[in-house]
Design a protein that fits this description.
single chain; 18 strands; about 30% strand; 7-stranded mixed β-sheet; alpha+beta; about 280 residues
């Protein structure tokens, strides 16, 4: 029997399955909401006919790929130019032919990784097209990687390229990781942080165990975030959805200290507080 790639229209999670999958495991998880109108899980051919590619360059050497219209959670796939070959971190919901051609023009993908399942998007496409020797995901999150093959499970730290280092934060997911671009001073933060934007201007920060269910992180989880992320120097953050600057290490430490000062919550902390 032929296996086909299917994507959940609600969250964008891809599954390689015999027929239309009976459900989406990511939507069934406590960190995501269930689709109000039931399951809609189209195959790759249907998805590809619906979506167009868009890309932008928010910082030198960093290109973000998305789709129009948005699909699933609507993540951005970041392509980061690096010594020894490009690093792809997170993935767009799908890569139409012109997006793959643009990535090829920019030098392809040598190393591939993602923070956690909400940022995987169509990571499987990049593996199939460019066959990077390194595909890195937190070892504790392997249960979500059925659509692609992990070649380098990440424990606590992994240098993907000179100046580009993966750090495990846990918290949002057990294997959740961030990628620190030391040279550009950018933190590719996954879902460790949520940035509230006013247009393109960052106004507030928050952190969550489960965004849809509004479940806060525990104090120990925030302490681990603080110990890992607080040791990194950055002045901008890139979530799986947007690029935000300025957001600095000091801003993020204020958020964590606020969380540790009382009962955990998911309310955004204005960036003006304490600046």
């Amino acid at each position: 029997m032929t296996l086909t790639m299917y994507a959940c229209a609600h969250c964008g999670h891809w599954q390689r399955w015999f027929t239309v999958p009976p459900a989406c495991p990511v939507c069934c998880d406590v960190r995501n909401a269930l689709p109000e109108d039931g399951w809609d899980i189209p195959d790759e051919k249907t998805v590809g006919a619906l979506l167009e590619a868009r890309w932008h360059r928010p910082a030198p050497g960093v290109t973000g790929f998305r789709t129009l219209p948005s699909f699933g959670l609507g993540p951005t796939g970041w392509l980061i130019e690096a010594e020894g070959g490009n690093v792809a971190w997170e993935a767009a919901p799908y890569y139409p032919p012109d997006a793959l051609a643009e990535i090829e023009r920019l030098g392809g993908v040598t190393r591939l990784g993602a923070s956690h399942v909400h940022g995987y998007g169509a990571l499987w496409q990049l593996q199939e097209r460019f066959d990077p020797p390194v595909v890195a995901v937190g070892v504790q999150d392997l249960t979500w990687t059925k659509a692609f093959r992990v070649t380098w499970p990440v424990d606590e730290r992994l240098e993907l390229a000179p100046g580009l280092t993966v750090h495990r934060t846990g918290g949002h997911f057990p294997g959740h990781c961030v990628l620190h671009d030391e040279r550009r001073r950018i933190l590719f933060c996954g879902d460790a942080l949520k940035v509230d934007l006013d247009g393109t201007v960052p106004r507030a920060l928050s952190c969550h165990k489960a965004y849809h269910a509004r479940v806060p992180l525990s104090h120990d989880e925030v302490r681990h975030y603080r110990s890992v992320i607080g040791a990194l120097d950055f002045e901008a953050v890139a979530t799986p959805f947007e690029f935000a600057a300025p957001v600095t290490t000091a801003d993020v430490l204020r958020l964590f200290d606020h969380q540790l000062a009382g009962r955990p919550d998911t309310a955004p902390l204005p960036l003006g507080a304490g600046r």
